[in-house]
Amino acid sequence: MVANARVAEVTAVDWILAEYNNLEIGLLHCVQMGIGDFNHAFKKMFGARGETKRINAARDLAQAAYRELGLGTDFATGIDAIRHALRIRNQYAHWTWWDDSSGQLAIANLEDLAREPSAISGFDRLHVHHVDMPLLEMQQAYFA
C-alpha cells in the first residue's frame, strides 16, 4: 500500500502530478502569445479531454506563428519537452505504486501485464520499477 511508502517520495510524486497542470497552462500562454487569440487557443486546447490532444492542438495552432517569428525550433523543443513531462506524469498517474519494503517507492504498469497473451494468475510477472528521491528530484527539476 502507498500509505506505508516513504513520505518524501509520495510527496514528490504528488508534486509532479499537480505541477503538470501548470506546464499545460504555460503552453496555453505560449500558444496564445504566438497566435494572438486567447479564446481560440483555450477552446482548442481544453475543449476536449486528453493531455496528448492538448499538446497536439497547441502544436497545430502555433507552430506556423513561431516559425514565422524565427522561433520554430524553440517551439518544437518546447513541445517535445512537454511530451516528455507528460510521460513522466503518466507513470505516476496511470501506474500503480506501493511500498514493497525495498526502501524505495515501487511502481508498475498493470496495463502492460494485462496485454500479455498468456493467462495471468497473479502479479508475479509484473515488471516492477523503483523510484528513489534522486530520480524524483531530477524529474521535479525537469518540470521546473
The major pleated sheet works out as:
3 strands, antiparallel
Order of helices and strands: HHHHEEHEH
Query: Structural class of the helices, strands and pairings?
Result: mainly alpha
Query: Unreliable segments (pLDDT under 50, ≥5 consecutive)?
Result: none
Percent of residues in helices: 55-70%
Q: How many helix segments? A: 6
Please give a structural write-up.
By secondary structure, this protein is mostly helical. The chain contains six helices and three strands; from the N terminus they run ααααββαβα. It has helices spanning 7-35, 38-46, 51-68, 72-94, 110-114, 133-143, and strands at residues 96-99, 105-108, 129-131. Strands 1-2-3 form a three-stranded antiparallel β-sheet. Strand 1 (96-99) and strand 2 (105-108) form a beta hairpin. It is elongated. The two termini are 29 Å apart. 19% of the residues are buried.
List the topology elements.
Blueprint: H1 7-35, H2 38-46, H3 51-68, H4 72-94, E1 96-99, E2 105-108, H5 110-114, E3 129-131, H6 133-143
Antiparallel strand pairs: 1-2, 2-3
Helix pairs in contact: 1-2, 1-3, 1-4, 1-6, 2-3, 3-4
